């Protein structure tokens, strides 16, 4: 049982480039979320989804897009990378509201 | 926006000491989770509390949810070096969103 799989684990981009961070889960969880974690800080919610076809914005959505065409996958797209988006990105899933979240191992992204 | 404040931000203690970490908000949460995160990894769940006044124990860790469901505490008895890590609290609402505190970095020295 793989749980939550994030790819890639590391990525370096140049300012202005675009890329997609992948998140896949095999637990059939309805809820999926993307967070970013900056040094010495907690996690800030970027976008989340309560089911296939449904997405909503979190605290810091600017510069990011998401889609949820299947239950299993929730990709995060950076449209035009900026140095301020240098961070560690975590994908998380949960079965139902108020259930604990299961996290992937993160993607470490550096924007030069 | 629901905010969660954790204190202290950093804590360095000797093995065997007790400690308490606090998580406070002006908002009411339907549930609150405590996670522990080690460097290079994602957060791992320690406990979920959902009822005001609820107390849960996990070996040497005691978690309490405030009566009004706005605050929580984590108490560790006889801390060990293996307890070292970043402790995060997260409050959930009925819309499926979670708000995280900025974390408490705990270092337990042998």
Characterization of this structure:
The complex is a heterodimer of chains A (112) and B (110). Chain A has 112 residues and is an all-beta fold. Chain A has strands spanning 4-7, 10-13, 19-25, 31-37, 43-51, 54-57, 64-66, 76-78, 87-94, 102-103, 107-111. In chain A, strands 2, 4, 5, 6, 9, 10 and 11 form a seven-stranded mixed sheet that branches. In chain A, a hairpin with a 5-residue loop joins strand 4 (31-37) and strand 5. Chain A starts with a strand and ends with a strand. Chain B has 110 residues and is mostly beta strands. Chain B has strands at 5-7, 10-14, 19-24, 31-37, 44-49, 55-58, 61-65, 71-76, 85-92, 98-100, 104-109. In chain B, the strands form two sheets. In chain B, strands 2, 4, 5, 9, 10 and 11 form a six-stranded mixed sheet that branches. In chain B, strand 4 and strand 5 form a beta hairpin. The A-B interface holds A 4, 31, 33, 35, 40-45, 48, 50, 58-59, 90, 92, 94, 97-106 and B 1, 4, 6, 9, 30-31, 33, 40-45, 48, 50, 88, 90, 92, 94-103, 105.
Q: What is this structure's SSE topology?
A:
The complex is a heterodimer of chains A (112) and B (110).
Chain A: E1 4-7, E2 10-13, E3 19-25, E4 31-37, E5 43-51, E6 54-57, E7 64-66, E8 76-78, E9 87-94, E10 102-103, E11 107-111
Parallel strand pairs in A: 2-11
Antiparallel strand pairs in A: 1-3, 3-8, 4-5, 4-9, 5-6, 7-8, 9-10, 9-11
Chain B: E1 5-7, E2 10-14, E3 19-24, E4 31-37, E5 44-49, E6 55-58, E7 61-65, E8 71-76, E9 85-92, E10 98-100, E11 104-109
Parallel strand pairs in B: 2-11
Antiparallel strand pairs in B: 1-3, 3-8, 4-5, 4-9, 6-7, 7-8, 9-10, 9-11
Beta percentage of chain B is over 45%
Order of helices and strands of chain B: EEEEEEEEEEE
Mean pLDDT of chain B: 93
What is the gyration radius of chain B calculated from CA atoms? 13 Å
Number of strands of chain A: 11
Structural class of chain B comes to mainly beta
Largest interface: A-B, 27 and 29 residues
Q: Compute the gyration radius of chain A: what is it?
A: 13 Å
What helical percentage do the residues of chain B reach? under 10%
Given as residue ranges, the uncertain stretches of chain B (5+ residues, pLDDT < 50) are none
Helix content, binned percent of chain A: under 10%
- The rounded distance between the terminal residues' Cα atoms of chain B is 40 Å
Distinct helical segment count of chain A: 0
Count of beta strands of chain B: 11
Form type of chain B: globular
